[in-house]
Amino acid sequence: MIKKEHILQLANQYLNQTNMYVTGIKIGSDNHINVFIDGDEGVTIKDCVAVSRVIEGSLDRDKEDYALDVSSHGATTPLVLPRQYKKHIGRTFEIRLEDGTKAEGDLVECNEEEVKLEYSVRENKPIGKGKITVVKQHVIKHNQIKESKIKLKY
């Protein structure tokens, strides 16, 4: 059986020389291998082909048959690494937290420990009648995030 650790090691042989990284590996019971990669400046088809060739060049089909797909992380796939957030500053996120609550807003800052979302709410005026729009921020530690998705605008 082909192991995830082995595939990760093979992919990293190529990716460690670039600004790209593995975000996920899935291996089915029929040895169908899916490798997902992302990069600080995006991923091209050429990048996926290069990673695929490195992995295929190190596996022996005579010993074990397999199918291999290498693709980019995907726009609708939840982010899994703190490193992925930086290139998405300014985009709107929907984040589900470990405690079951949700946070939504525009990503304005991020680092290895946390992300900062900015969002607008309508609140009562401090003096007088009516409401005003107030901009607030929500700082979320990465270890509090259960799932983080970019909200795509159509």
3D architecture notes:
With 154 residues, the chain is an alpha+beta fold. Helix 1 (4-15) crosses helix 2. The strands form two sheets. A five-stranded antiparallel sheet has the order 7-6-5-4-8, with no helix packed on it. The protein folds into two domains: 4-72, RimP-like superfamily, N-terminal (GMP Synthetase, Chain A, domain 3, 2-Layer Sandwich); 82-150, Roll (SH3 type barrels). Helix content is 17%, strand content 42%. The chain has two helices and eight strands.
Outline the secondary-structure elements.
Elements: H1 4-15, E1 20-27, E2 32-39, H2 45-58, E3 67-72, E4 92-97, E5 102-110, E6 114-124, E7 131-141, E8 145-150
Parallel strand pairs: 2-3
Antiparallel strand pairs: 1-2, 4-5, 4-8, 5-6, 6-7
Helix pairs in contact: 1-2
What is the total tally of β strands? 8
Q: Helix/strand-derived class?
A: alpha+beta
Number of domains: 2
Helical proportion, percent range: 10-25%
Unreliable stretches covering 5 or more consecutive residues: none
Please count the helical segments: 2
Rg: 20 Å
Which characteristics define this entry?
alpha+beta; 154 residues; five-stranded antiparallel sheet; SH3 type barrels; GMP Synthetase, Chain A, domain 3
